Records
---
Amino acid sequence: MGAPPPLEAEFARFSRYIVGRQGTRRLARRYALAATRLGLVGESGDEELLKLVRRFPMLLGPLDAAAAFLRPSHLLRKRLLLATAILEATTEHASRFLPRHRSLPGFIFVGCVVAIVTALRLAVGVPLFLLLEDKQ
Amino acid sequence: MNDIIVVGSGASGVHAALPLAEAGLRVLLLDVGNDGADYRQMIPAEPFEKLRRSDTRQHRWLLGEEWEGVPLGPVRVGAQLTPPRQHIHRLADRVLGPRRDAGAFHAMESLAFGGLAAGWGAGAFPFTDADLRGWPIRRSDLQEHYESVARIIGVCGSSVDDLAPYFGSLPGLLPAARADSNGETLRECYERKRVQLRQRGLHAGDPWLAMATERLGDRGPLRYLDMEFWADADRAVYRPRYTTESLRKLPNVQVEDDALVERFDELADGSVTVDTRCTKSDARRRFEGKRLVLAAGTLGSARIVLRSLQQYGVPVSLLSNAYTYYPSLNLRMMGKPMRDRRHSLTQFMAVHDPHGDGADLVTAQAYSYRSLLLFKLLKETPLPLPQARMLQQTLQNWLVILGVHHADYPAPTKRLWVDRQIKDPDATLHVRYEPTDTELLKRASREKEVLRLLRKLGCLPIGSVHPGEGASIHYGGTFPMTRDERPLTTTPEGRLRGTQSVWMADGSGFPTLPAKGLTFTLMANARRVAMALLRERR
């Protein structure tokens, strides 16, 4: 079996990032099809940032945080949301999206983790994102 | 020749056609009738959460065959419609003559079987005399029609809680649907603070819903599948399609599908011809009838009337309830599990009546966010996606979407008209809808007060979504019913002035729009118009 086409490889990376598990090839093909149908593929100034993420996957989290904060309509964010929708609408990953009951201390713990991780990602992502936007 | 031609199979059309057909008249129902049958067959009749864990084809109806369930842009009118409900407006956007909405007004029209009510949230709120101020009719004129319609559609709710005075009496009310944990905690808190809240004008209770909580013919009882946004498996929530099915069985009724009505002509003998276009083949057909009942929806009927009477460039009034969503956290649900068996529609309703006279209300309806996809919430959350997912997965149980409705009244800045360009075969419908500054200020101050009172119930707003004017999908007021003889108005009985044989049975005749869902009143008023037409014929 040859290497997966770029969009399918991108989905594999995105699914590891979003739910911590790699999505199947079937879902990756669904992602590639949907991205094409929804017009999320093609020439766009935002592609530069996606290329950077392809080269340095560890930047995905910081750049996602920065895009969510600074420019939610960025192509990276749209593609991530599409991958999220595709993962959510599957029996394999549904439990990661269905409501979860947590006690109040449990919720406070989750809230603290979310705040710390987001702050760290923003600290790295925002300067980088602004730099890349500036370069364009 | 047909005795009556009814245009439209929505909430108004079918409830105008039914009494006419039952009286033995030959009724022709014209409609485009775009259907969502493909999705209906795809969705198993199981609880939402069970399907999410077991249906391997769920992506097809959750995200849509054309990915129409993945909106990546800003929240717009119709954002609440899931892929199986999007057929309601899809064809209309493509087929109807051009429409130009100026400013921030975005209307939704429908050519679907059952019209816009095919996606109705089922709120069944009768208008009281206070709501009908400025109308030439009173509640007593509508009462028997509310009762007749309620027997057909099934309305559930409470006749003894604090909302009951705002709805008036309705015999035969079905038992209220059981609220989910969110609705229950809001209700409990309201009961504890009832005296204080009532003093400040907030009254709350069970919403009245067109939902068969008990068996009603071949419908219901409600199975609490939590699938109301996606399918009608238990047929508990009323859809006009069910009445069309009954109409089709009557020998004196003919239902003509794929007939888009473009114009009518009145003949010298008082009869009417109606010109239609087939949306698939573009073929033209002409139908004849002794009377015409227009129920194509406020915008659709306006297009037909203004073209037919050649009133190009003549503005008429347009009304639309203002609507805002407030995603909120129900703090009293923190740490509590959510009940599994539930329905998806309004769980709790509040009315703000600052003067205690029932006029000038603002209403708020609370929905839980349980049977919709999480990614739509994540899109609006300014956090990295894995963190947003972790947070929203927990918050989902506590999340309440508050829908706040305002009344609407005519103003010179709310107008529509048709304008025919020389080379344009269709008349372009123009909408200019701009609320006055006074209205905008009043809306903002009323919303602030309502939210302040709801915070006392533990409901903490975390944002607001203004999908734009027109987003309530409640329209009316284009040919208002009046007692004075004015052109482009209707008589209190519903006949279009300037015509002998044309009757308006949809929201076109509503002189104002109270802050309550209109659909139940559209049905009752359509029946009232039909009965007036019957009396006139006799």
---
Amino acid sequence: MYLLFPTEEDAWSRSEQEGISLGLSFHTEGKGSRYVTAPEQTIDGLWALDVESYDLDESEQATTTVDVIFPEPQEEE
Amino acid sequence: MPEKSFTVTRGGVTSTISVNRDIDAGVTTFTRNPLDKTTTRVYVTVAGHADMSGVYSASAIAHATWHQEGGRGQIAAYDYSPADQGNYSHWLLVDDSDADPYFEFFGTFAQDRPWESSNTGMATFSTISEPISVDRTASVVTSDRAGESRPLLSKVVGGAAVAYSLRDLNDKQGNNKVVRVRRESDNQERDFLAKEVSNGTLEDWVNTNVVSNGVFTNIGFESFSNASSSGFTASNTGSTGFAASPISGSNGTVISVSFDINITNGSPKLMLRTNLDPANSSPASNSLEYTSSGSKTATLTAYTNFVALYFTEGDVPSNFTVSNFKILGDDGFVETWYDQSGNGRDSTQATVARQPIIVESGTFQDGLKFTHTDTTNGKRMYVPRSTSELGTEFALVWVGKLTANSGFTKVLFGGVRGVQGNNSGSVGLMGRVDTSSTTATFRNEKTSSSSQSESQSNTLTLNEDSVMFANYDDDAVVFSVDGNVTTDTFSSTVLTSTADLRIMAGQSASGATGGFYRTQESATGICKEILVYDTNQSANRPAIEANIKNQYNLT
């Protein structure tokens, strides 16, 4: 289950926000774990963030999607 | 380890030298402390004149002129007079290029070093810590001497560019930190010394929050038997039934359980509750429904405080048996694998979903466990070192095991992607274990479509530890898996990739960590040790392998 963001920075920001709410070490001790999940760019240029474990608000819940396609790198052998 | 101080008398002058005894991969910091009559170099901070701040040096004589190293600053004893003739030392701090600043301060005659004056004005003096690199490279020891244990790896051969392990490569007592671990249940993190990994402290810490459950009791089932803390048999035909087990915890607690369930009728549900009495309780966690028999694992996340775990009948009629029920231990994940080479090249993973596993369901994995479930959450670690930084003579060492069969050759360590659409200019170690054969490979990806490699067949074994060693010396390759050595000569090797080396992850690359990670080329298994040398280690290979084999009981 993903949330889609227009920029990578926006996606990292949402991941960090979740990290803050979980009390990850970076946000309590200044070092260590900072983000919950990492965004990946989709084939249409958006940034998909896996939010399966996130505590989503209503508007976010309404905009999650599972239909995400990631680009495949060239493979020739 | 605390500092050790030594008193040194030299030329009739006594001074104290403090030695930081932290053993950190061959680099020990010696600090002259405090400033004294033997000091010949001192750090001076000049307020408001950054260009004047820096190291000043002079010979160790009274009232010397101190010159800024690499600058135009001077601190000169402009005038001085003994005790019976005025008793003063008159110091000038001046930029001799433009006389700005031009500052004077005074001390007594005996205060013949500038920092000894009681008021040095705009100048602040401090000691210089001088890192002294101790070359630990010793004669290669290929066998134990009688009655002696095998030496630490750093004593066998030093000078690694990167060194990761859960054992201490530098201190036999294991007093160096080797890993930083995040505990899944509450996201607390802690650094661990090597001895704390081996003596169970790490595993115990990860399981700190694990609670146990009590005997299941019947509330409402018409029939209830064989009750214990590990299960029960329950049935009813028309009423609501609860099998309640005492267990307590707070909001946010994550509890993982495993059990076998045999369902004749009904669709039992599992959840945490706020009270042992169902009439006064409400759900305290997610609820999981079971409609088929089998071995199950479940994770319950509390959203409020709880005191009970319930199985309910789900619907009626209901007839089911739960057995082998147990609370699973916690999980621990690696946030940092500390570099023991002394070069500070720690491998970090700040995104929790991608952190490799070190304790799973309460059990230490004896290494870093990498799984690759999907593109976004596959486990991966990066080394802040690229192929292009290895030079033309280098060696790579990987210790670990593959734990899954696959028809694909997977990246164990390095910068390679492992399949065409290569990461141009990279090198790496790869492995494949499938049902009919195994392959171990040292690979150079020359261009996006061209590669060269040295491979061995059937030297890897599923679920068995191996040590893989590759030495490269201007196209000459020595490749070894558990001591089975083959050689090769590469041609027109390309070593230009600036992508970070990866541990158990296959990824094309653009930049340090970018590019496409793929589960298909990423190795599932456990990594125990990574060594990178940016020097030729072919002569030291037997000693390195002997040390590792002894440590991990490899044959």
